[in-house]
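Bench log. Compound arrived from synthesis this morning; before running ITC I wanted a structural hypothesis for how zinc ion sits in the protein. Inputs:
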Amino acid sequence: MTAPTGTFKDAIFRWFEPATLAFILLMWSLLPAETASNPLTILAATLTTRAVVLGLEFVGERHAGWRLNRRELLTDLFYLVLGYTVIQAVNNEVIDGGLLALKAQLGIATPGLAQLPLAVQALLILFIIEFGQYWLHRAMHNWRPLWLLHAPHHHLTQLNALKGGVGNPLELILVFASVVALFDFSLPALFCAGHLVTAITCFAHANVRFKAPAWYGFFFTTVAHHSLHHSVAYDDTRCNYANSLIILDRLFGTFRVGETDTVGQGERRRLSIREQFLFPVLPAINGANERPGIPAE
Ligand SMILES: [Zn+2]
Ligand SMILES: [Zn+2]
């Protein structure tokens, strides 16, 4: 007797997220040092992960209202290219470059870190990145100047695999930034952690009917968690701030359980790329976006 097709598909959507994270940790641990230190490897690895998750949207859709159309896909691809070029270059040169100079000036050295197993280093890096991102993201929802940068991401009217990289460019630079450059982790471990963050952020925005085991959702952000963060009512967005490690919301009292398929600030007003770029300086757009919970200064 053969199992019904649905059972096999259900198993894929149940195990895809944890299995992918395990695969990423294993892959980077086993790659030859030269390959694991090559920037082309992380480029190919993250692009493949994004492509697979995007493909799953066509196999196991979560919400019909989030179905990709040509306009959404082109916007997502525009930001994908921007992320891998300008945003990444600014982060490498300005933020990481500045931190490396500071590190040299202060004589900060943590030579033991690179001796740890790669998976341990990668999980430490993930935690450092996410801890900073949690508080930055929470500040974005509580301080108006930062909210104006972040709001374009919340004007998204649907979630898809590549939507984690869609927003105002200045916000994207901040979202990619971290203090990890102050530590002496190995380059393959940094790449592995970057791959993990990319994968989890991709899962958390994907229009895929993932249904991971409860233990996975205890530690890692899922699309159900993140959809609530994209709620229409502004006050309902003030939860589930962690992009990857939802356990931080559990620890700091901002976790909310549930899911929504209706997302988008400003009465679900979709912004064009131009509006996303100009949002913080265009009163005509953001004047309609005042939120009672956000302090004026
Ligand atoms: Zn947010
Ligand atoms: Zn988001």
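What the model suggests: The mean pLDDT is 92. The pocket of zinc ion (ligand 1) is lined by residues 137, 140-141, 150, 154, 229, 237 (CB under 6 Å).
ITC booked for Thursday regardless.
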